[in-house]
Amino acid sequence: MGRSRLASLAVILIDLLGVKFTQADEPRLETVSYACAATGLERDYFVYIPAGYSERKDWPVLLFLHGNGERGDGKGDLGFVLKHGPIYEAWIQKRDLPFVIIAPQLPLFDQGGVSYLKNRSADDIPLRLPDSVPPRSKGKSGGGAMQGQLAEPSPYPPAWMKEGWALIEDELMGMVDHVVANFHGDADRVYLTGLSYGGYGTWHLGAQFPDRFAAIAPVVGHGHVDHAPPLAEAGLPIWQFAGGKDPVVPVRCFYGALNELERLGHPGIRFTIEADQGHAARVRVYAGEDLYQWFLEHALPR
Could you please report the per-residue DSSP string of 20-78? Predict the structure, then answer.
């Protein structure tokens, strides 16, 4: 029997068995299951595998924390985490981002009755198209004048985080450990970013484990003064992003933690205000190149 005939039979057998064969050089999206102590249930998280994955053994790892509107059951709802951020850019927009990306989903906990969670549908989940990419949203999401730079108290106190990412912080770090050990990850180049509620989560997780991340980038979510001491002591590089017209998280709320970091002598703070943008400043941030290049400039000291 000729080689072409054997190849044809192999393709037919793969189709009959429902097995999907993926070339090692092509990007792919995998799910990893874990036991969630906070819910007592099995949940999944996404791991994005970049193009050329088999060619190296030391990939940078990027942990992405979504916003409050993408919570879910970690199973059928998991696709909602593809709506924004680097996982959206890599998988839906098909950008060649050189990271293994971890994208977990925050449990609903007591948020199930929130209108934007209760009223969403599966149609809101973006799809990876076979031969093209969908258009990005245009951002803005905020009206009125651009805001000034006077610090003011946050409408989101530290206790607000107790309803979310803080409850699964050990599981998040377990995901990082698993991916570094099993997906060719580089433990010296683990980065953290998150948007909105995930921006708060980024501040919290960075402050809890400042020696585990090479750099962090919270987007349209600010930190609190209590986060500053461990971050300053570790000198963890931070790039904060805000929307100058953001009605959800006003830019004036960002200065408390940032000023405290400077007071403590932190050497590595960047603060970028997308002055013409609202809460959807996240679109511009993650659609750009600068953030990813900045991440790759940093590594933990060996």
Answer: PP--TTS-EEEEEEEEETTTTEEEEEEEEE-TTGGG-S-EEEEEEE--GGG---SSTTG
